[in-house]
Amino acid sequence: MSQRKYRLDVCPECKVKEEVSSTKRVYQCSYCERWFCKKHLKPRLSVFSSIQVTTKDSAWKNLVEKERMSKDGHPDFLYTKEKMVEFKVEEEVSRAKMDAFLDRSKSYGKPTPVISRTKSIPTKTPVKCPKCGSERIMTTAYREQYDAFECLNCQHKWKHFHRVLEKRVEQKRKTSKRESITATVIGLLAGCVIALAGVGIIIWEIYNHLFWTIIFVWFIPVPLVLIGVFIIIFGVMVAIGSVASSVSSLTPLKKVVALLLIVIIVGMVLWNAPAIFSTFQRLMGYQPSSLYSLEELVNYALSLINSDRSHNGVSNVSLSSVDSGQKHADNMLKYHFFSHWDMNGSKPYMRYTIAGGQGSVAENVAWQYSSAPFDLEEALQSLEWQMMYDDSDWDWGHRDNILNPFHNKVSIGIAFDNNNVYFVQDFENDYITWSTMSIAQNGDVLMIGSFRSREFSLESVNIFYDSLPSSLTSDRLEKAPYNGGYSAGAFVGMALPSGWESVEGITITAQTWVQTSSTFQIRFNLSSAFNAHGKGVYTLYLQSDPDMTEDSLTTYSFWHD
Prior knowledge:
Blueprint: E1 2-9, H1 12-17, E2 24-29, E3 35-36, E4 43-44, H2 51-54, H3 58-69, E5 74-75, H4 77-87, H5 92-105, E6 137-142, E7 146-151, E8 157-161, H6 162-207, E9 214-217, E10 220-223, H7 224-247, H8 252-271, H9 273-284, H10 294-311, E11 318-319, H11 324-335, H12 348-354, E12 360-369, H13 376-389, H14 397-402, E13 409-416, E14 420-429, E15 432-439, E16 444-451, E17 458-466, H15 474-477, E18 490-496, E19 506-509, E20 512-516, E21 519-525, H16 527-533, E22 536-544, E23 556-560
Parallel strand pairs: 4-5, 11-13, 18-19
Antiparallel strand pairs: 1-2, 2-3, 6-7, 7-8, 9-10, 12-14, 13-14, 15-16, 16-21, 17-18, 17-22, 20-21, 22-23
């Protein structure tokens, strides 16, 4: 009865009789050439209401009654017509009426090819007569656009149009798609909001100095910062989950495009993370109200210094190329301490030498804390004013340093966050162009240079000693002696020209001490100083005639270890 070839489709009889719309193997009927599952593949008689009146043949009536009660097979008009010929209906007139009915139905022979609608979601077909409500109905035709039905109780006929159903299904699909997109967007936004809440908690903790705030979760102590991290992770997971559920339903090509878009968006967010973080800080009120570049702040600080010097009849200073001031300011901000010493235990002149300075240095440091947003220029102006006019607690040392007429350069350091501003002024005496400034491990010192803007009469090289620096903690730097001013260390002695002797400490007679107008050359050995004090940091202060200036021309440090 059927060919063994099959395809995957919806069986129309399963759809109508059993309301089953799943896809299964269907086979082609050899009569009507339509496709049915194995259960409904066999053709059976098409039953219509006037069959009892049309014929008096008892065999035919019994067959019709049997077919009407059968749940298998499918009604087929061509098969029915063959059976009618086979049973030789007695009344020719009745047969003619039946033929006319079958001809009008046009439901046998080579039907119009059935177009599969397996991709659409089938809807529930009627199971009752719309006129009398009887459940005794039969299918009289299958069409591309509709299915035809007839009630066996009242002989009412009607059609069930697929086009209307498909429109409803399509509308339902669009509604479902909109709902899916809406759910994805809501999930993504919810994840972002949760993650931002976690970031807010961490920022609030850090900038309120409550980094280790402990709260109890089910009697377990948990740092609030850690909770903020967990909230961020949870928010990210919510956002990723909502996007992943939406992407999983796409075609492979659309999945690739969606993943590329996600990678691009994440990359843009990470690339602009500093700007986003800064904006978020401002929204929370944890960032200075006015933003300046470091260059603008340094130039503003220089103008404050030179303004104070000008008002007191002192020449201006210029910016130094040595970055010792900025490095110290950054170090204090990073480790949250305030001192002339750093975390390595180094003093200002040691850091100045490490940074490449070959002149002499004297340092001012200032610090301001604020729990509220502040203007950086106003903060620098306030710190400069305090060092100039409110410095009695420090015996006006900061003021004297700012107004020292012998200083000709300054290395400025400015570091800040949302609550702190660190301001460093490393004033320099930089008057020498050095050809050679070297100290060998055996203690040989060679100093060759020339004066740039003015001439000095060199008299001595003063030698000071500090023990080797050791690491310090932020807490230790808040205590004496690190919370006050700094000294040059212990006086060791002097390196002098031949025929001169130091009034205290050791005297080192220079092998070479030559000065001609603006150039000079000095050579001596520090072995006797090494023998007297051992390992440590030795700093050389090149001194000129005291009648010209009492300030040194160098503060050059050497580590002997």
